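Sample pair:
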Amino acid sequence: MDMEKHTTASIFETLRDRICLLDYPPGTILREAALAKEFGISRTPIRAVLQRLEHGSLVTVRDGVGTIVTDLDRAELNDIYEMRLKIAELIGVLSPRKITPADETLAIGLLKRARQLVTNYSASEYWQINHAQHALIADLIGNSVLREVWDQLYYRSARFWYREASNTPDGVVQDLVAELGEITRAFRARDTVAVGYIQRNFIAFSFARLKSALNPDQPTS
């Protein structure tokens, strides 16, 4: 039973990453039988994985068609980023756990990896660093509801951000290095409140970059 749970969780993460990395672009139909064959399990746990993806708004089920990878329209993207900006400020307020030396070590390691992207860019490595940074900060959140919402909104917006990262890698890498530098400093000071505001600021920066990319003829405020 424990092995099946672990397998289901791993498959969920794999499919979620494929969606966020656009390996499964919007409109892709995910077929239970094909996925069950790929992962060597029955269709029942695959169905549970697809239900989790639907709960996170990454797929939708259409009668007579199947499970389809969704996309966001610009209005939804705006709503998601507005919410991310607000709840980021709560990270260090709603029962956060204390930052540990192990957390600081992880942050330093991510910063070193991000700096290497400056001269040796890899789209996959960029995603993995962002993913690890998100997990590191999410793990500080003590409020379970906030952590769940924070996690869902991150992955819902990831596809838009990944497209921008692919189009302008130099700029997004510089932003990532700057963000991880500030996060490392906050971790060193054991300041979870600062971590929340750092996240808020860099979410704002990334949203401004996205809006500029989506509306190139409109000046940014």
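Residues 41 and 54 are 20 Å apart (CA to CA).
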